[in-house]
Write a sequence for this structure.
């Protein structure tokens, strides 16, 4: 990855009651969990559709996933924000035409 780049991986989890942004493992494979645990990786705070990010402005990129603006989905549960809302990492990646 170039110094100006950013890498994103899903950090999904399906157990809402046990969610902890720093400790709950990703349930979509060993690579996503390895990536999540790497120093310098930041994770969005969403119980089911968290995104882990590294690189340029990674912490800012995954922040605000608790905001309530944007599109509705079946995974929208309080106190978490809109899963695919206008402040979600997925929406940000989409609007930036991420590859």
């Amino acid at each position: 990855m170039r110094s100006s780049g950013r890498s994103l991986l899903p950090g999904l989890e399906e157990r809402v009651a046990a969610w902890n942004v720093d400790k709950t493992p990703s349930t979509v494979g060993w690579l996503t969990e390895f990536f999540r645990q790497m120093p310098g990786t930041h994770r969005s705070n969403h119980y089911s559709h968290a995104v882990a990010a590294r690189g340029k402005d990674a912490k800012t990129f995954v922040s605000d996933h608790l905001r309530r603006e944007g599109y509705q989905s079946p995974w929208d549960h309080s106190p978490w924000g809109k899963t695919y809302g206008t402040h979600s990492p997925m929406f940000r990646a989409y609007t930036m035409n991420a590859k």
